[in-house]
Amino acid sequence: MQVTYDSQKRKLLSSLYHGAIFLSTALLSIGIPIAINLISEDPVVKSNAKESINFHFNVWFWATLIGVPIGILSWLTFGIGGVLFFPVVALGFLLHWGLTIWALLRCFSQPDEPVRYPFIFRLF
């Protein structure tokens, strides 16, 4: 027996996963994908949830790894260190927001295929 899934529901749930990072960078961005992943039976939606969680962990990891030293350097040099590293921070924001918007557009244009972010490590 072939099981079919609602394409519109896939669009909504998958977009909610990837767009959750716009709602909050802490609890909601990871809580929404986990909660819906637990109740959904759709394999594409589950795959998008895992990918979204992996992407959010990557954002947090790289922001901490790069942001904390830049913040400390900026504090120690009265802001000069922050100015010197502004292009690195700007590139990070562009990648973060750009990849999130790309994933949302991908969910709308190809709802029956899971989104796979480039350049990330996957924990799940």
Write a concise keyword list for the protein shown above.
124 residues, mainly alpha
Q: How are helices and strands ordered from N to C?
A: HHHHH
| Number of beta strands | 0
Number of helices: 5
Which stretches are poorly predicted, pLDDT < 50 over at least 5 residues?
none
Task: Sum up the overall morphology in one term.
Answer: elongated
Classify the helix fraction into a percent range: over 70%
Measured distance between first and last alpha carbons:
29 Å
The overall average pLDDT, rounded, is: 87
- Whole-angstrom Rg: 17 Å
Structural class: mainly alpha
Instruction: Give the strand content.
Output: under 5%
Q: Major sheet, described briefly?
A: none
Descriptive account of the structure:
The chain is mainly α. The chain has helices at residues 7-23, 27-39, 43-76, 80-84, 86-109. α1 (7-23) runs parallel beside α3. The longest helix has 34 residues, at 43-76. The chain starts with 6 loop residues before the first helix and ends in a 15-residue tail after the last helix.
